[in-house]
Each structure stands twice: as structure tokens, then as C-alpha cells.
Specification:
The chain is an alpha/beta fold and 314 residues long. It has helices at residues 16-28, 43-57, 79-82, 104-114, 127-135, 164-168, 170-179, 188-191, 198-207, 210-228, 237-246, 300-313; strands at 7-12, 30-36, 63-64, 118-122, 145-149, 184-186, 195-196, 234-235, 251-260, 271-273, 291-298. It has a 9-stranded mixed beta sheet with strand order 3-2-1-4-5-6-11-9-10, with helices on both faces. Strand 2 (30-36), helix 2 and strand 3 form a beta-alpha-beta unit. It is globular, with a radius of gyration of 18 Å. The model has no long low-confidence stretch (mean pLDDT 96).
């Protein structure tokens, strides 16, 4: 797959790293469409940010507005990380584009039925994907693969054990992990290895194109915000998930049963990953949760190089 351009739909909640993911996908993929979801900020902002990113990059990609709230959970956001509008303090041009539809779920279902070898990369809360599965039980079977940026086998970011995208709509995530197996989980275990610093932002600034300057400002804001939270660098989670699909040889993964905790007082939104090496020998193995490909490590320097190359090329 590293030498091909996979056909993808990107389901996202832009968001700083989502915007860079859109740019990365546009370079390495046949980006069939973008669907937006409430997450890092509200649906109006995430949709406008997706449109702004395609506008700045001159991408002819339809944007379909999706779910404005989680299935059941109260609406939460990550504005403290991404800024009030979702793009930090980056100055953007006036928006001149408009959405292709208000129905991301219909677009997802129709595209999965009509486009062969279509990959779904979901890098926000999984509300749209769960609704697509409810609308069309064959939705996952009609796709070549589903890759999510979400979850973590070993520790969270919004709580001690929960990653934001799963925590923001755990009921939706539970549907995906139960009904769409196997998916590929690009979680914090790997995305926290791919850290960007101010040097990458400065490199893109020197490229000097409108797209590169836009991405440079996104990276710089993300880096400084992450430093405020005690991190040594900025994980660009969602772009890391794109490269996992386009350059899978750069990642190591293994298959494990994964379930989403919905009830725990301290563990709601946790992706409970069963890593016991002797599972197949257990008498109750048939009763285990569905198994998924959990990504553990990446060639971080090469992944960063590919992301920077993608942005600089647009």
C-alpha cells in the first residue's frame, strides 16, 4: 500500500491535528470526501475548519456535515487544547466554500456501497460511524478497512485511562469495536511517539507556501500548548493515523480483544485491551470481545518526514 494511493473518506473533527491530517491525506490518498463530527470543538467549527483547510489547500474535496452531539453522552470538547474555534490562534481567510450536504451518514453509507476498495479513517469521536452502522448493517463489510485514531491500551489523555475521541462518545465507540471488527486502533500508544517540535514548524514556515505557512502555525500553536501541559513535543495524532494507512510498513501492531468501558466511575471511555498471551487456550475464549489490530510503535522520524513532505508538497 505504501506505493499506492488508497481511496479514503476522512471522518474528522478539526481540530489542529485534523487539519494537518487533511493535508497529509490529500497528498498520499485519493481523498473521496470529508465528513465532520462534533468533537474537539462544536460541529459548526469543525465543519468550517474542514472547509477552510480544503480552501487554503485548493482541494476539490466535498465536505459533509455530520453529528452535532454524541449518541447519549453529554457534549464535551477539547477547546482548551485546540482553541475556541479549533484552529488555535491561526489567522485564516474568509470562508468562501460551503458543505456538500448536511448528512454525513448518508454519504458514508452510499460511498461504502458504491466505491470499491474504500478505506475509512476516523480521527474524531465515532458518532457518524456508529450511526452509519445503525443505518446500514453491512456498512463495515462494504469497506476495505476502518482505521481509527482513538483509544489507548496503556493510559489515556483526558482521564488516566481514556483517550479523548473514545471518551467523547463511548457508546458510539462501543458499537464500532463490537460490530465493525477488525478495525485498526491507532491510539496514544503510538501517536505519543510521533512528536513534533518547533523545528518542524520553522521548516514549514521556510517553505513559504500558503499551505505550509498555515500548517507551520498549526504546529507552533500545538507545540506551545502541549508544552503548557508538560509534554516534550506535540503529537499530531490524526496525521499519524493517515500514514498508518498509506505506509503501514512503518508501524508494528498485534491483534487483541478490545472493549470499551461504559459504566466505570473512573474508567468510562477506556479501551480495555486484553494482552494476555495465552487467550486462545482459555475455555472461555469464544466469549471474549472482538479482536482488533492495536498499533504499538512507529518509525517516528520517518512518519514525521512523510507528514512534513505531504504538507510542503501542496
Amino acid at each position: 500500500m505504501a506505493n499506492t494511493r488508497p481511496k479514503i473518506i476522512l471522518d474528522c473533527d478539526p481540530g489542529l491535528d485534523d487539519a494537518i491530517a487533511i493535508l497529509t491525506a490529500a497528498h498520499y490518498c485519493d481523498l473521496v470526501g470529508i465528513t465532520t463530527v462534533n468533537g474537539n470543538v462544536g460541529i459548526d467549527h469543525t465543519t468550517n475548519n474542514a472547509l477552510l483547510t480544503t480552501q487554503i489547500a485548493g482541494l476539490d474535496v466535498p465536505v459533509h456535515r455530520g453529528a452535532a452531539r454524541p449518541l447519549i453522552a453529554p457534549t464535551m470538547d477539547a477547546a482548551r487544547i485546540h482553541g475556541e474555534t479549533g484552529l488555535g490562534d491561526v489567522k485564516t481567510p474568509d470562508l468562501t466554500r460551503s458543505i456538500a450536504s448536511n448528512n454525513a451518514v448518508d454519504f458514508l453509507c452510499e460511498s461504502a456501497r458504491s466505491i470499491q476498495d474504500l478505506h475509512l479513517i476516523a480521527v474524531g469521536p465515532l458518532t457518524n460511524v456508529a450511526l452509519a452502522l445503525r443505518q446500514d448493517p453491512d456498512f463495515a463489510n462494504n469497506l476495505a478497512s476502518i482505521t481509527i485514531m482513538g483509544g489507548a491500551a496503556r493510559g489515556g489523555n483526558v482521564t488516566a485511562v481514556a483517550e479523548f475521541n473514545v471518551w467523547a462518545d463511548p457508546e458510539a465507540a462501543a458499537i464500532i469495536f463490537t460490530e465493525a471488527a477488525p478495525i485498526t486502533m491507532v491510539g496514544l500508544d503510538v501517536t505519543h511517539q510521533v512528536l513534533f517540535g518547533i523545528e518542524e514548524a520553522e521548516h514549514l514556515a521556510k517553505v513559504g507556501t500558503e499551505v505550509a505557512i498555515f500548517a507551520s502555525q498549526l504546529l507552533e500553536f500545538t507545540y506551545h500548548r502541549c508544552r503548557e501541559f508538560g509534554m516534550t513535543g506535540a503529537p499530531i495524532h490524526d496525521a499519524t493515523a493517515i500514514i498508518c494507512v498509506t505506509h503501514p510498513h512503518l508501524y508494528e501492531r498485534s491483534r487483541h480483544p478490545v472493549s470499551v468501558e461504559l459504566q466505570g466511575e473512573h474508567t468510562r471511555g477506556m479501551t480495555v485491551t486484553d494482552m494476555r498471551p495465552f487467550l486462545e487456550s482459555l475455555e472461555f475464549s469464544d466469549d471474549l470481545p472482538a479482536a482488533h489490530d492495536v498499533v504499538w510503535t512507529a518509525d517516528a522520524d520517518t512518519v514525521k518526514e512523510h507528514i512534513i513532505t505531504a504538507v510542503a508538497a501542496l
